[in-house]
Design brief:
A middle domain of Talin 1, two-stranded antiparallel sheet, single chain, 13 helices, mainly alpha
Length: about 325
């Protein structure tokens, strides 16, 4: 029963996110925002609503029982790994992923810097409320500089009728309601599954929830590649990883404070850092990610999942 509830929760998260993204993209398109920026901000925030909703809900659980820290940190890191390992690898099998070197250096620095800061904060085994606020505010600053660039480039708006704009906002609101409701079901059932099957809670969060909540990114990336809009796909994945590193953990810690598992600090953080370096190296040295590089990335991710699976049963 718990497993069925978990699947239903993940399905609800996916559906709610799809509705939210549909509305958000329609709004952004009418405002004339560049494609890469849409992926980096609108799509990444929209597709990461599941991670944020899970984090907030788990933080409330923490206030009551103090048992959901692994769900928050694990699902955020697992989502990062799923996006940069599985989703980006699949997208690379479909088409050629490339970005200008300047963008790779800029966004790569943000990705690695965010992860290093999270590792520093988690070194003592916890993320305090103050540290959580710092992480969340850093993301706000990141968005600010992105939108400053957009204004500087001087993109014009396209205009939209009141009815079409209202419909887009309706999609946003309905999607948010579905996401938030599904988050409660996902968190509670994930904890129950871990107890029922005697599986480590961190495995459920990192692999099952992390990969499951990356389904919107997978859907967006495949759709973008099939439509030959590679920059939209890459922008979504980069923005999503920056968001997941800073916002869900930051907001949850600001609400209740979080414990940071030493196992995650020794395993997930280094692996995510290394995998990110590999991806950035391919973007710079190979001027992008093609099928061969995509296979390498997917192989590394699958090896990681197998390792986690073998160690999941207590």
């Amino acid at each position: 029963m718990e497993l069925i509830a978990l699947i239903a929760g993940l399905a609800g998260l996916w559906l709610g996110t799809e509705l939210t993204i549909h509305g958000a993209v329609a709004v952004a398109d009418r405002l004339g925002v560049p494609e890469f920026i849409v992926g980096l901000t609108v799509l990444s925030i929209g597709s990461d609503l599941p991670e944020l909703a899970i984090a907030v809900d788990a933080a409330i659980w923490n206030l009551r029982a103090g048992e959901a820290s692994d769900v928050v940190v694990g699902s955020a890191l697992g989502s990062c790994l799923g996006q940069i390992g599985f989703v980006l690898g699949v997208a690379g099998l479909i088409g050629f992923l490339k970005l200008p070197k300047k963008v790779v250096y800029q966004q790569g620095s943000v990705l690695l810097g965010s992860l290093v800061l999270l590792a520093i904060f988690g070194l003592d085994g916890q993320i305090t409320r103050v540290e959580g606020i710092i992480l969340a505010l850093l993301y706000v600053g990141y968005l600010f500089f992105i939108f400053v660039d957009v204004v500087t480039l001087g993109h014009s708006t396209k205009g939209a009728s009141e009815s079409s704009f209202a419909l887009s906002l309706a999609y946003l609101v309905i999607g948010l309601v579905v996401v938030v409701g599904s988050a409660e079901l996902t968190v509670s059932s994930a904890v129950s599954v871990a107890i029922a099957f005697n599986i480590e809670q961190s495995f459920v969060a990192i692999v099952i929830i992390g990969l499951g909540s990356s389904l919107p990114e997978l859907s967006i990336s495949i759709g973008a590649m099939l439509k030959r809009r590679a920059t939209l796909s890459v922008g979504n994945l980069i923005g999503s990883n920056v968001f997941d590193t800073l916002v869900p953990i930051g907001v949850a810690a600001a609400i209740a404070g979080l414990e940071f598992s030493s196992d995650m600090w020794r395993q997930e953080i280094p692996f995510l850092f290394g995998l990110t370096l590999v991806v950035l190296f391919f973007f710079i040295r190979k001027v992008g990610i093609q099928k061969f590089e995509a296979i390498i990335i997917l192989t590394l991710y699958i090896a990681y999942v197998v390792m986690k699976f073998l160690g999941a049963f207590q």
